[in-house]
């Protein structure tokens, strides 16, 4: 039903705009294959954070540990840029490169997130239930694009739409990113 989708979208845009205008950040989460590119593009468009590869349990509830992993990422990148990884032995160099690749894949989208975000936008409420549970525990308002199989009670604002269609995801995320950009000004 398009009317319900529009209703959810209007409420979501207003909420995001208010949160961002109060100086808070938004994190976009979408780890399914169809959503990865759209999530990343929307977040980069409005200068916010994103998780597109894998939601690490404790990203919000154990934020201090995640920050320490981000410091390790910067440390490894410095080593890579200065050539210190190559100067290590073959085995150790390979291990460090693998660690760099793994940490970068998982945490690259939230590397500039210095504090807990003010809101979370999720693609597919059913798949991202761990992220939603963490946000609920931390008191962070959540917005989700959800199919008929998603539980609307797990989310603060649900946008009923096809969460498997790449085009639908991109259109909805584009609108939400525009609301975030509007809240920034």
Walkthrough of the structure:
Strands 2-1-3-4-5 form a 5-stranded parallel beta sheet, with helices on both faces. It has 7 helices and 5 strands; from the N terminus they run αβαβαααβαββα. It is elongated, with a radius of gyration of 18 Å. α2 (36-46) runs parallel beside α7 and α3 crosses α5. It has helices spanning 2-21, 36-46, 63-82, 84-87, 90-107, 129-138, 166-184, and strands spanning 26-29, 49-51, 119-123, 142-146, 157-160. The longest helix is centred in the first third of the chain and has 20 residues, at 2-21. α6 links the parallel β3 (119-123) and β4 (142-146). The chain has 185 residues and is an alpha/beta fold. The chain starts with a helix and ends with a helix. The mean pLDDT is 89.
Helix and strand arrangement:
Elements (H helix, E strand, L loop, with lengths): L1 H20 L4 E4 L6 H11 L2 E3 L11 H20 L1 H4 L2 H18 L11 E5 L5 H10 L3 E5 L10 E4 L5 H19 L1
Parallel strand pairs: 1-2, 1-3, 3-4, 4-5
Oligomer: single chain
Radius of gyration, CA atoms, in whole angstroms? 18 Å
Mean pLDDT: 89
Helix content: 55-70%
- Poorly predicted tracts of residues: none
**Helix- and strand-based class?**
alpha/beta
Number of helices: 7
Shape: elongated
Largest sheet: 5 strands, parallel
Instruction: Please tally the β strands and state the result.
Output: 5
Could you give a short description of this structure?
The chain has 185 residues and is an alpha/beta fold.
């Amino acid at each position: 039903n398009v009317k319900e989708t529009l209703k959810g979208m209007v409420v979501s845009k207003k909420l995001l705009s208010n949160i961002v205008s109060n100086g808070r950040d938004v994190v976009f989460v979408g780890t399914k294959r169809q959503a990865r590119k759209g999530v990343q593009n929307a977040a980069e468009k409005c200068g916010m954070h994103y998780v597109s590869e894998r939601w690490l349990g404790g990203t919000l509830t154990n934020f201090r540990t995640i920050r320490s992993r981000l410091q390790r990422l910067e440390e490894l990148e410095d080593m890579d840029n200065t050539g210190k990884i190559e100067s290590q032995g073959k085995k150790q160099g390979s291990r460090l490169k693998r660690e760099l690749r793994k940490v970068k894949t998982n945490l690259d989208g939230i590397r500039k997130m210095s504090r807990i975000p003010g809101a979370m936008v999720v693609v597919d409420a059913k798949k991202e239930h761990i992220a939603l549970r963490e946000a609920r525990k931390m008191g962070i308002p959540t917005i989700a694009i959800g199919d008929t199989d998603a539980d609307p009670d797990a989310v603060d604002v649900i946008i009923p739409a096809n969460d498997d269609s790449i085009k639908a995801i991109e259109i909805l995320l584009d609108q939400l990113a525009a609301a975030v950009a509007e809240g920034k000004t």
